[in-house]
Amino acid sequence: MVALVAAITGVFVSGGSSSTTPTQKNTAISPAARQLLQSALSAAGQVNSFHYVATSTVSGPNGYTQKTIGDAGPDSGQQDITVGAQKFTVLVVGTACYLKGNAAALTTNLGLSSVAATAHAGQWISLARTDGPYASVYAAVTAPSALADNITITPENQLPPTKVDGHRVVTISGAIAKVHIAGQTIAPKGTAALAVRSAAPHLPVRYTENGTVNSQQTVSSFSFSHWGKAVHVTAP
Questions:
Q1: Where are the alpha helices (DSSP H) in the chain?
Q2: pLDDT digits (tens, 9 = 90+) for 95-147
Q3: How far apart are CA 138 and CA 149, in angstroms?
Q4: Element (H, E) at 77
Q5: Which of 22, 30, 91, 136 has its CA 20 to 30 A from that of 232?
């Protein structure tokens, strides 16, 4: 395992541009939908561990599709991520953060030169909190941050019960709310829906978004399973 050299501190951080689209106009909030959302987030926070599969497609000339498969625990987690040609794994154990990936992933996410990225491809790289890419790589890996960074909805309506992934659910729909990730504020325009188990505890089953950020169309889906299953992640 190698440490991220200090020379690249402050380089490009993946996860989007720091510029944002205008925030949306205020919309009516359904008391029932808001209460259900609060109940779902509270239940998720109490269980505080889950497995998930997330996909996101960004349209346009620079469009891409990202797939993330992860396990999130209270203070640790793991993600296996594919973004186009990039393939990499992120581990978080407490405040420690590690990344291993192919050369394309190291160049994009850590700012390594093509020569350095090729030399360190397939090796675990340790990131210190003083390294520029740390915040972006660390974000949304543990259960608390994965929930806060991915479920960003202003509750407006509560839809009739239906079934999603074999669970009987109630769906909360509304506008996508702005979110703060790795020191950046992202404020997409669009709609979101959170399907939660209809029976208490109202644990999330699936969260979807369809919106626009920085003039690019995005469609995302985040599916939850294995609530309460212990997550065991050890430093490489």
A1: 31-47, 103-110, 114-120, 134-138, 143-150
A2: 999 999 999 999 999 999 999 999 999 999 999 999 999 999 999 999 999 99
A3: 12
A4: strand 76-83
A5: 136
